[in-house]
From TrEMBL:
CDD domains: FXYD12. The keyword Kinase does not apply. One of its GO terms (cellular component) is membrane. One of its GO terms (biological process) is monoatomic ion transport. It is a single-pass membrane protein. It comes from Takifugu rubripes (Japanese pufferfish). This is FXYD domain-containing ion transport regulator. Keywords: Ion transport, Membrane, Transmembrane, Transmembrane helix, Transport.
Length: 68
């Protein structure tokens, strides 16, 4: 940092943006978000793959047409 008499001081003169790391980090973050959202949306089908559904037979409906 060079300081001239009476001039403004530029504290960011030595700062350089690292666009490659920023781009890679953004792509990794986006990939993780997409993977987790697909897992969330299709999770029920993935985790129950091959398992048969349990059918409830203990609920008996009243006969139709009878008014009590």
């Amino acid at each position: 940092v060079t300081v001239s008499a009476g001039g403004p001081i530029d504290y960011d003169a030595d700062f350089v943006y690292d666009y490659h790391t920023l781009r890679v980090g953004g792509l990794v973050f986006a990939g993780v978000v997409v993977f987790l959202s697909v897992l969330l949306l299709a999770g029920n089908k993935i985790f129950n793959c091959g398992k048969s559904k349990v059918k409830r037979t203990d609920v008996i409906a009243p006969p139709a047409g009878r008014i009590v």
